[in-house]
Each structure stands twice: as C-alpha cells, then as structure tokens.
Fold:
Amino acid sequence: MKTMENLSTIRKEAVEKIKACKDNGALNQLRILYLGKKGPIQEVMKTMKDLSKEERPAFGAKINEIKQELSALIEDRRTLLAEKEMAEQMEQEKLDITLSGFVPNVGNLHPLTIVQQELEDLFVGLGYSVAEGPEVECDLYNFERANIPKDHPARDMQDTFFINVEELLRTHTTAVQMRQLEKYHEEGKELIKVICPGKVYRRDDDDATHSHQFMQCEGLVIGKDIQLSDLKGTLDFMAKKMFGESRVIRFRPSYFQFTEPSVEVDVSCHICGGKGCSVCKGTGWIEILGAGMVHPNVLEMAGYDPNVVSGFAFGVGIERVAMLKYGIDDIRNFYTNDLRFLKMFNRFE
Ligand code: DAH
Structure:
C-alpha cells in the first residue's frame, strides 16, 4: 500500500505546516494546497484508479478523513492566529491612564479685568445696569455737561489728547455718566442706577502711580429723595466687598465741578486695619475715590428738574483698587504684558 503510506506522509507534513503557520496569508496558501484542486492529496487521488475495487472505499474514506482533519486544523489555527493578533494589538494600543498628560497652557484674566468684573458683579447685585460709552468723546459730554465750561481752569488738570477742537480721548468716565443722564431723560425715566467702567486718558507723566491711560468705573444713581447717606451706604458696601468685611469708610469734603457737595472717600487700611503702616502712610486711611451729589446744573443740562430728582455719583480708579487689593506698587505692571506678573492672577494654578 504505497499510496496509503504516501497519504500519511502528506498528512503528517500538512499537520506540521499548519501548526507552525504564523499568519493568515500562509494559512490560506496551505488550505489551497491541501484542500484545493491541485496539490499532493489530489495527486495521490489520481492513483486511486490503480487500486483494486476492494481497496478503493477504504482509500477514499481515508482521504476524506484527512481532508476533514486538515480543514478543522486550519480553522482552529485561523481562530488562534486571530486571537493572537487581537491580543498583540490590544497590548500595543493599551491606554496607560497613569501616564501624566500635557497640561494645556490656560490663560487667565488680566487683574484689571478681574477687578472690573468684581465691581460689575457687586453693583449688578444691587440692581445697577452696566453702560459703556465712546473713548473718543465729544467736548460736550466730557466737559461741558459735567459743568466744566470751555474757559474753566479745572480743564487744566485733565488735559488730554485732542482729535480736533471738539473731539478728544475722554479724561474720565464721568463723560459716560453725562450720556446716560441724557439717554434716561429722553426715555422719560426718573430712576437711574448705572455703572460705567472703561478706559480713560490724560496727558500725564508715566510713573509708578500715573499713566496716560488708565481705567475708571463711574457710578450714578438718580431718583426721588436720593441723599448723601445713600451714597455713603453704597460705598461702604462696596468697600467691604472689595477690601474685606471689617473695612469702614470716611468722607472728606472736596470739590468737583459736577457734584455739590463733593467728597473724597477713604477706606480704612486693609493692611494695618487702621493703626497706621507704610501702605496708608501712617494715617490708617487710604483714599479710593471721588464722589458727591450730582450738581443741579448737571441735572438741568441733561433735561432733569433738580427740584424733582436728585442723585449721587462716584468715580473709582480700577488700577487704584487693584493695586491696593493685590499689593502692587507700580501701575506700569498692568500694561507691560510681563507673563511673570500676569500669571500671578491665575486662579487655577
Ligand atoms: N471724574 C472724577 C475724576 O476723574 C472722579 C469723580 C469724582 C467722578 C466725583 C464722579 C464724582 O462721578 O461724582 O477725577
């Protein structure tokens, strides 16, 4: 039975090859070779005709048995290879969640923006709205309506950059106050509660406490029977929110053309608590803003009758608040874009 011997050699060889097969492509080749139309098994089958009638059935059965065995082996191998491949892939693509990632470079708000937003938040909480106005302003709103006529010496203290005779870079947010007064009057309203934050400009020498451009936040309240005590209560609340609950304020008489009476407002020193230190220059008080009752002339120029309505106004320097709050000794830090300075205000680091 030479053919039978041949068959078992072919089978043995095939089984070895299948078991040693390392990839799907080669496995396919083996399937074609042993189970396809041309191959060693087919070759042996051709010799069947040389066998006797009695031998043929056993030979045929043997061939079928081998084919089935090889087919099953190939399928098992295919499954094994697929599992191996999957396992390798999983190993390669494994996510190591213990690896530290890249920390994104998150920016942060500028300290002046932080203070501006804090002021806005606290006044919006009191029912105020927030208004803006143009930085290139008319002489009319910046000076005339603020009760500072063309020849008034008070203009000297607020010299500014003129675009032409009638237009200038606004010197204070009081200009927005004047626009708001006019707007509310035109709308027939007798109750105003508004703050106006923004940039202002002056011809000034730039030094540690002065800049030709800085920020202010104006406040304006108009209504019936608004009194100086309302102003004091409002500013006391603001001082406590901005500098701490134990702060108190005091009014000192002052003079502004657009208020009567006018006051300068000091807050008790948040560093020494009022005992006297270098920040408050030994006085226990720090000046933070100017304020007063809106001058009757200002009300009249906007169209209001000062016998019917009254109100208060104030103007606070945003840089001044930020410098006091954060202990910054040079105003130029706000404008030089030094990241070492700006990053100190990142609340997330
Ligand atoms: N406009 C003033 C300034 O720039 C600040 C100011 C003082 C504003 C009194 C006011 C106020 O509204 O009532 O120095």
